[in-house]
Amino acid sequence: MEGAVKSVPLEMMRELLPSDHEQLFKLPTPNVIQDSKSAWRSDKEFGRQMLAGLNHIIISRLEVFPPVQT
Predict the structure, then answer these.
(1) Domain membership flag for residue 52
(2) 66: cis peptide before it, omega within 30°?
(3) What pTM, to 2 d.p., does this model score?
(4) Which domain holds residue 46?
(5) Dihedral, CA atoms, 42, 52, 12, 6, nearest 10 degrees?
(6) Considering the domain boundaries, does residue 32 fall inside one?
(7) Angstrom distances, CA of residue 26 to CA of 4, 16, 22, 23
(8) Which one of 10, 11, 31, 32 is most buried, by most CB atoms within 10 A?
(9) Residue 69 lies in a domain
(10) Residue 5 neighbours by CB under 8 Å, 6+ apart
(11) For residue 13, is it within any domain?
């Protein structure tokens, strides 16, 4: 646990622990939903997240329409 505490940058700790202690661990709002709370539901945002995700290799071209499960 001590190693984890030392690896967190001080600036991040200041952001997570505000001085007023009213909203403990309040994270900043992501850029994608600052304008609209439902922006994350769009196909464009879903595609962006899939391409930026950990396993973007799973994306494949649709071979048959309508899709069938294998």
Answers:
(1) yes
(2) yes
(3) 0.40
(4) 2-58
(5) 150
(6) yes
(7) 20, 6, 9, 6
(8) 32
(9) no
(10) none
(11) yes
Q: Cα torsion for 57, 45, 64, 61, to the nearest 10°? A: -30
Provide the residue type at 48 as one letter: R
For residue 62, CA distances in Å to 42, 54, 55, 65, 69 come to: 20, 21, 18, 7, 12
Q: Among residues 36, 30, 32, 34, which one has the least CA distance to residue 45?
A: 32
pLDDT in tens, the chain (70 residues): 566 667 777 777 766 665 665 666 667 777 878 888 888 788 888 888 888 887 778 888 888 898 887 6
- H helices within 1-70, ranges in order? 2-7, 10-16, 43-52
Q: What pLDDT does 20 receive?
A: 62
